[in-house]
Amino acid sequence: MEKSALQIARAAYQPKLPKALQGAVKAQEGAATQSVGNQEEIKALFPNTYGMPVVEFVSAESENNTAINVGIILSGGQSPGGHNVISGLYDGVKSLNKDSKLYGFLMGPGGLVDHKYVEFTDELIDEYRNTGGFDIIGSGRTKLEKESQFEAGYEILKELGIKALVIIGGDDSNTNACVLAEYYAAKQYGVQVIGCPKTIDGDLKNEQIETSFGFDTACKTYSELIGNIQRDCNSARKYWHFIKLMGRSASHIALECALETQPNVCLISEEIEQKEMSLDDVVTYIAKIVADRAADGNNFGTVLIPEGLIEFIPAIKKLIQQLNEVLTDPATGESREFAGAEEQIAFVKGNIAPENLAILESLPADVARQLCLDRDPHGNVQVSLIETEKLLSRMVEGKLAAWKKEGKYTGKFSAQHHFFGYEGRCAAPSNYDADYCYSLGFNASRLIANGKTGYMSVIKNTTAPAAEWIAGGVPITMMMNIERRNGANKPVIRKALVELDGAPFKFFAANREQWAKQTLYVYPGPIQYWGPTEVCDQCTKTLALEQAK
What we know:
alpha/beta; Rossmann fold; nine-stranded mixed β-sheet; four-stranded parallel β-sheet; globular
């Protein structure tokens, strides 16, 4: 593989580990746990993996150093640092016993079901240390839900002598990991399943998980791009830049990027839902800021938009919920089949409530069409395909034109559009993510050595220097509740939304009026890997504010 100068230099970087993982460890167990919601239902569904204690690793005289074969899967969208989770796990199992083996299943969970895999070697691992992407084994979105899949997976695990499986994924993938752990435990197959918290969206976090890996790098990558645009914006002084950012289910990325760059407008989906704002309310809010800046002679600015915004506008959210219901076949739980798009749209219009039909028909035709059509593998509207940034700028332009006729606005409005998504998912990990991910992988090896299954690998206290980080594990059932998905009630890990009474949002809310009126842009620049700690090793502003650091 041809490498850049940065990759060559970066390959030599040795990620930092918590002190607790630098020698022999033992698991220190806490009290029994329960799920965050629907305790009786979750307990009934997961009798073998419910109620287990949170564990923390502490130093020990010796540890289990039996050779063990482990499998690993990358599931879902890419996230910076995935390769370091794998290299951390590889180094971890080899440090326990040099005869331990690590196998990677190719192209996600489908590789487990279809028996496609590779055995990792020193040479292969060394090619990918501290690099972005998931290309070492690829990723996929196959959902592990059916008994036939579990059994097919068990066949190859048995054949390779694999006693533990690590699944790297987001909330849906780790929900699948929990289901798989329960199944193998119930069958007494002797296969442990460990999860690892991945998603750039930042919505897989709770009291035990401080942040999902990749969020730090992705936000710093997007913030560099936003800063570049703001510098251009402040130089040309003639465009409003509407920038859509990843984050379908939560606005953590938009909020973090706002904290890093201080744009004129940043929409937070969770706030819009709480205030029960309509699409027109959102447009009016932006247009008012545009008009106020124009009155000061500033016909330019930046607007940050989370990609899932449209789903948080209450009237549209109700519409989408019913669309999800009518497009699911109640007999199979799968998406209904249609001969073509027109038949599907006609079916939708004939089967939704009149008030939802009115909302659907009030939307621009292209947006209404997208809402009626294809879902992603998890049954969700593919909001990333809806060009919300163009929809909003078009509607703002219309409102400003109306105000101009009424003499309420005298400025000029010209828009540019951007969507930052794939640009951040495979970036070379920041020092924080390189260290955090390596620690998560190494830590997973110790959860395996201590006989744990149905646990998530967790590293805490990450605003401190890496040596002071706390390593351990949390039962995945602790994070679960029952939610309505695809027309049925299902056990899932509860997503973490932006907390409107949390420190990051409160800081943003206290400053946004000043950022709107004045031009106070911050230009973060590219991620730095060598230099002062305050430049190279800092966590996100979100995490620092949450931890009051």
